[in-house]
Amino acid sequence: MLNHRRLSRPAPPPSALSLLEDAKRELDDATWQRDPPYRFAGAYLAALRAGAAVLAARGRPHRGRSRPVSVWTLLGTIAPELGEWAAFFDANSATRAAVQAGITRGVSTRAADDLVRQSTQFLAIARRAVHGGG
């Protein structure tokens, strides 16, 4: 007889779980935000935290005294299956920075809504990646 034991995965690090919770909270706030630039920025921040959660779960390669690298650059390297997502959010980094600087005229309602939808999808993917589901 074969012994069928379920293989257990190690629990994700607490930092990854905390980042996922923060991402969900930020996304919930962005969803209810009426002002498109702040919806956009909140959705971006939620995705950023979700990406950071994946990095926290998978670990960052140690490079000694290296220069700071963006979450999106690291994510494309450490989790190549998320490379397209990383490129997508990286392409929105300048807009998010502009909103943070108070330059909000470039964010339409549609752009904010689209980013909320994309961030929602990415958070679900990041959650699976953190919990070992891909």
Topology:
Elements: H1 14-32, H2 36-58, H3 71-78, H4 83-91, H5 93-100, H6 109-130
Helix pairs in contact: 1-2, 1-6, 2-3, 2-5, 2-6, 3-4
Describe this entry's structure for a reader:
The chain has helices spanning 14-32, 36-58, 71-78, 83-91, 93-100, 109-130. Helix 1 runs antiparallel to helix 2. It starts with 13 loop residues before the first helix and ends with a helix. By secondary structure, it is an all-alpha fold. The radius of gyration is 17 Å and the shape is globular. It contains six helices and no strands. The chain has one domain (23-59, 69-130). Helix content is 66%, strand content 0%.
**Beta strands, count:** 0
**SSE succession:** HHHHHH
Percent helix among the residues?
55-70%
User: How large a portion of the residues is in β-strands, by DSSP E?
Assistant: under 5%
Number of structural units classed as domains? 1
Mean pLDDT: 90
Helix/strand-derived category reads mainly alpha
